[in-house]
Specification:
By secondary structure, the protein is mainly alpha-helical. The protein has helices at 2-11, 15-21, 28-49, 57-75, 88-98, 122-125, 133-145, 171-189, 194-198, 231-240, 245-272, 288-316, 319-325, 328-346, 348-370, 374-393, 397-410, 421-426; strands at 147-152, 155-160, 222-224, 227-229. The protein is built from 18 helices and 4 strands. Helix 7 (133-145) crosses helix 8, helix 11 (245-272) packs antiparallel against helix 12 and helix 12 (288-316) runs antiparallel to helix 13 (319-325). The radius of gyration is 35 Å and the shape is elongated.
């Protein structure tokens, strides 16, 4: 089997093939590295990330987001007065005016009392304010149809708004303007409103991608003090307490540290200890041992996060505390790694990879076909067809011999005999030599 593998590698001498055939296994040091990196990420998550109300890193992330908002405002023409160069409230006010939308209702009265809504949660209930494909779809839809779409009480509610017209001379231009308007408005909301930031508050930002889907989770009876509330209400209350996009960036910090540290140590060890080339030490998903290490490291992070959230939630008897302590970014990353590994184990991902390689070979074959001189091929084909017609027209052996001799001469084919064929065949020492 090893000889067969080496022979195949000799034929298919490319990095992708060698990596696909290579089956790496983890040793005890790989496991220790994965658990250690996951534990470091877990400690950062517990003591530095925490919840929106007590996070150490959140303040630094908020400052970073404020800086990005002001940079974006300046790139769109914001020219603040002297003394307001570092005023994020002023930058937000500029963006709110520049990227106006028709779906920015903030209170229950703005939606004719159809459902309860306030300035603290309208960014979660308004589907067009979501920074994902769902938000983009509903934003374009609302801008084209002069409506607002909300996810409230477990169902989608559409409200008519004042007439809104997108800029652009044609449909494609209007779509482009709608996307730009959607993104610009999100940037005006990501750090809170100009009013809340002007009052020295943190403001209500936008949700993390797909967090709005908690709005359909109208199930469960979780204890929050003396009340029993479903998961949708718990998620809304968590958002109101600061579990927003900015906190999502904070949640990603221990996940990124765990992931990058595992990849870095794996690459260094494979290069210096095992002597592999730098190309083979690129930490991609094609390495079995690296995938296992990432799975184990992120699993360790999630276990520590879950234990911390469980202890704090149980000690207070408040499910909202448990919810706000959970690192949903880490859990989402862990679930995706599990799905990826299961797909590889059952062969789904391998089948996809096989199709990719088949496509590569077909592409290479097509490139070779493109090198063929079609005109020369057509001339050769016409000549062959002429030869066939000549052979079909013969009726005697003499005619057939004459035609074959003529074809040999025209095609410059070397005859396997010399002189007259009958005399050659009569010679006992004569041989036919095919070249």
């Amino acid at each position: 089997m090893d000889n067969l593998k080496e022979a195949y590698l000799a034929i298919e001498n490319n990095d992708e093939t060698r990596l696909l055939l290579q089956k790496d296994t983890c040793d005890k040091y790989d496991y220790l590295v994965a658990v250690g990196c996951g534990a470091i990420g877990g400690l950062i998550d517990i003591f530095l990330v925490g919840s929106p109300t007590d996070s150490v890193l959140q303040k630094k992330v908020d400052i970073w987001v404020d800086d990005q908002v002001m940079r974006f405002a300046k790139s769109n023409g914001w020219n603040p007065n002297e003394g307001e160069e570092n005023s994020v409230a002023n930058a937000i006010d500029f963006l709110e005016k520049k990227f106006k939308v028709n779906y920015d209702q903030r209170h229950t009265a703005d939606v004719n009392g159809l459902f309860d809504m306030s300035t603290k949660n309208h960014h979660m209930k308004s589907l067009s304010h979501c920074p994902d494909i769902i938000g983009l779809f509903f934003s374009i839809l609302n801008q084209f149809t002069s409506t607002s779409s909300f996810l409230a009480d477990g169902k989608i509610i559409t409200v008519e708004t004042e007439t809104f017209e997108l800029k652009g001379g044609n449909f494609i231009a209007k779509i482009f303007c709608g996307i730009a308007n959607w993104f610009g408005h999100l940037m005006s909301d990501i750090a809170g409103s100009s009013e809340s930031r002007g009052n020295a508050g943190r403001g209500s930002g936008i949700v993390m991608p797909f967090y709005e889907l908690f709005g359909v989770c109208k199930f469960g009876h979780f204890s929050v003090g003396k009340d029993k509330q479903d998961l949708a209400i718990i998620a809304t209350r968590a958002f109101q307490e600061g579990y927003d996009f900015r906190f999502g960036i904070t949640l990603a910090i221990p996940v990124v540290i765990t992931d990058l540290s595992i990849r870095l140590i794996w690459s260094i060890r494979n290069h210096f200890q095992y002597g592999r080339s730098l190309m083979d030490c690129i930490p991609s998903q094609k390495h079995d041992d690296l995938r296992v290490m990432l799975l184990l490291g992120n699993g360790t992070l999630c276990v520590m996060d879950g234990i911390d959230a469980g202890i704090r939630g149980a000690s207070t008897g408040n499910f909202l505390v448990f919810f706000t302590r959970l690192n949903f970014v880490a859990w989402f990353r862990f679930v995706m790694l599990v799905i990826k590994e299961v797909s590889l184990r059952v062969g789904i991902d391998g089948t996809i990879e096989a199709f990719k390689r088949v496509n590569e070979y077909l592409h290479a074959y097509l490139l070779e076909l493109e090198k063929i001189d079609i005109k020369a091929f057509e001339q050769e084909t016409a000549e062959y067809n002429n030869f066939i017609a000549m052979l079909n027209s013969t009726s005697t052996n003499e005619e057939l011999n004459a035609v074959l001799t003529d074809i040999y001469e025209k095609m410059a084919i070397q005859k396997p005999w010399e002189g007259d064929f009958s005399e050659h065949m009569a010679n006992k020492n004569g041989t036919l030599i095919f070249e």
